[in-house]
């Protein structure tokens, strides 16, 4: 699994104002992503830094289960000393990671609305879609291991998309027929991502009301996933 740092190592695809109709530096058809006419060119990845984290459809169940096990306020496991809780102790001793996460989730999910054993604050019955990226980043490695996550390959914050990789042109070549050029469906989707991302960044930069920001976040989530 790629983390945001390794994904953002290539050049960024993020035009400053709009998406041009012809290839230009910074757009989804950036020439630096590869040359289709050169058979020796393997193509190169770019990236888009998203204005807000987005759920990855492949890991949304794992994200939801892990978030239900940690305190919304202090990001520690909602249970204090595991050794004092028989059910939690039994769940945390399961060897198979996926089964352990399932067992920990089933044991701790009932803590919603109750007090955290660490900070003493009550857990909200529901958590909105914003802010979960920061919450995941501060989950302690020790707690992630207890939940069954292998932090060497899948830290909690890696389960959400904050940096979207942009594949080389070789993966999504343009189609030329009858003197016309048609872009690949994946390229059209990337253009939608970039447009939505720019709109959301502008809304955040200008201090737009929450409802406007949320309205511009929805297309970004839809295009990314």
Automatic annotation (TrEMBL):
Enzyme Commission number: 2.7.7.6
GO biological process, one term: DNA-templated transcription
Biased composition (Low complexity): 1-24
Gene Ontology, cellular component aspect: RNA polymerase II, core complex
Record family assignment: Belongs to the RNA polymerase beta' chain family.
Enzyme class: transferase
PANTHER family cross-referenced by the UniProt entry: DNA-DIRECTED RNA POLYMERASE, DNA-DIRECTED RNA POLYMERASE II SUBUNIT RPB1
Keywords: DNA-directed RNA polymerase, Nucleotidyltransferase, Transcription, Transferase
InterPro entries in alphabetical order: DNA-dir_RpoC_beta_prime, RNA_pol_Rpb1_1, RNA_pol_Rpb1_clamp_domain
Protein name from the UniProt record: DNA-directed RNA polymerase
Region (Disordered): 1-29
GO MF annotation list: DNA binding; DNA-directed RNA polymerase activity
Domain RNA polymerase Rpb1: from-to ranges: 38-125, 137-215
């Amino acid at each position: 699994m790629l983390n945001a740092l390794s994904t953002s190592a290539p050049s960024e695809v993020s035009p400053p104002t709009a998406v041009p109709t012809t290839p230009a530096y910074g757009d989804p058809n950036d020439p630096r992503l590869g040359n289709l006419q050169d058979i020796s060119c393997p193509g190169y990845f770019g990236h888009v830094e998203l204005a807000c984290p987005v759920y990855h459809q492949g890991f949304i169940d794992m994200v939801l289960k892990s978030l239900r096990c940690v305190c919304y306020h202090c990001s520690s496991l909602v249970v204090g000393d595991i050794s004092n809780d028989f059910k939690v102790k039994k769940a945390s001793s399961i060897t198979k990671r996926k089964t352990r996460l399932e067992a920990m989730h089933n044991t701790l999910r009932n803590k919603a609305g109750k007090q955290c054993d660490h900070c003493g604050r009550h857990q909200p019955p529901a958590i909105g879609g914003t802010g979960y990226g920061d919450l995941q980043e501060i989950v302690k490695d020790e707690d992630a291991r207890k939940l069954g996550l292998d932090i060497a390959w899948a830290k909690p914050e890696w389960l959400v998309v904050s940096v979207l990789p942009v594949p080389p042109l070789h993966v999504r070549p343009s189609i030329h027929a009858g003197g016309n050029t048609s872009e690949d469906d994946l390229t059209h989707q990337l253009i939608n991502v970039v447009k939505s991302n720019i709109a959301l960044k502008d809304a955040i930069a200008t201090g737009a009301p929450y409802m406007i920001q949320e309205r511009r976040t929805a297309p970004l989530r839809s295009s990314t996933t």
